[in-house]
Amino acid sequence: MMEDFEKKVSITEKMESDFDEAACSSSSSSSTTTSASKTVHLLRSFLAIQERRAQAYSKLKSGFAEYMVSGGELAYQQLCSEITQEFNDCSKQVLEMESLFMNPDYCRIDLAQLLRAIQTQEKQKLQLVWLCSSCLLIRNALFNN
Asked: Distance between CA atoms of 47 and 116, rounded to whole angstroms?
């Protein structure tokens, strides 16, 4: 069952400016407000990407279960291709966000590092999912022969 991200995480418009102003080039309060607003927008975009990832995992799980029952290899290969493309797209978008957080317009190295850590965890999770799926396929093939 897909969990609703908005119930778990919310980002409000009112954000404290908790970054190191000495490390950033913006000094006016209006640019800080604009930066905070852009940060909120970017974080919401990130949550949307995480929701896409969750939907992709859900689709992969149901497709794998169907494959284990029906053995429709072509359909499963197509699904894996689509899911791989979706994860690649999500990763590229998050890497772009990470880069944006590091530039002077945002000056949020902390958030860039957080996105990097999440990307690393997502990569490990995906590798484990593929490994587990492969093991189940091998086990299934051995028991069916």
From this structure: 14
The reported pLDDT for the residue numbered 143 is 82
Q: Give pTM, 2 decimals.
A: 0.77
Measured over all CA atoms, what is the biggest interatomic distance in the chain, rounded to whole angstroms?
A: 71
CB atoms near residue 140 (< 10 Å): 13
Return the percentage of the chain with pLDDT > 90, whole number.
62
The residue among 104, 105, 102, 7 whose CA lies nearest residue 47 is 7
Query: The tokens of 34 are what?
Result: 């604009």
Q: What is the dihedral of CA 83, 89, 94, 97, to 10 degrees?
A: -160
CB 126 within 8 A of CB 87: yes
Number of neighbours of residue 111 by Cβ within 10 angstroms: 20
- Give the separation between CA 142 and CA 116, rounded to whole angstroms: 39
pLDDT band at 6 (very low <50, low <70, confident <90, very high): low
Domain boundaries defined on the chain: 28-144
